[in-house]
Predict the structure.
Amino acid sequence: MDENLQEDWLDAKLRDEAAYIDDRGFTANVVRKLPARPVRHSLRAVILIGLTLVASAMAYVLSGGGWFIAEGVTRFALLPLPVIWLTAAGATILVMVGGVAVVLSTTGARSR
């Protein structure tokens, strides 16, 4: 909490004390001479989403209308309770380890 207040104070102080340096239009000229960003009208996203929907529909039809999902849920529900608890604990640990790995990889990249 104190770090946020200190950063806010520091940001405000730096903004207040930042003096404008007159470059006699140099920055404006450079920006004006930059090439315009090319506008891409790509159908790639539409094609990928369309193919994904078609493949999903085909998988649904070929699998018997998704009956295997209902069958799998029923089989899982009929397992003994300790097995369900162990499965839930394992999934929880797996997600936590993944989260810690992501945090460590992002903080390690920033400190380099």
Notes: The mean pLDDT is 85. Helices lie at 2-17, 26-33, 44-62, 67-77, 81-111.
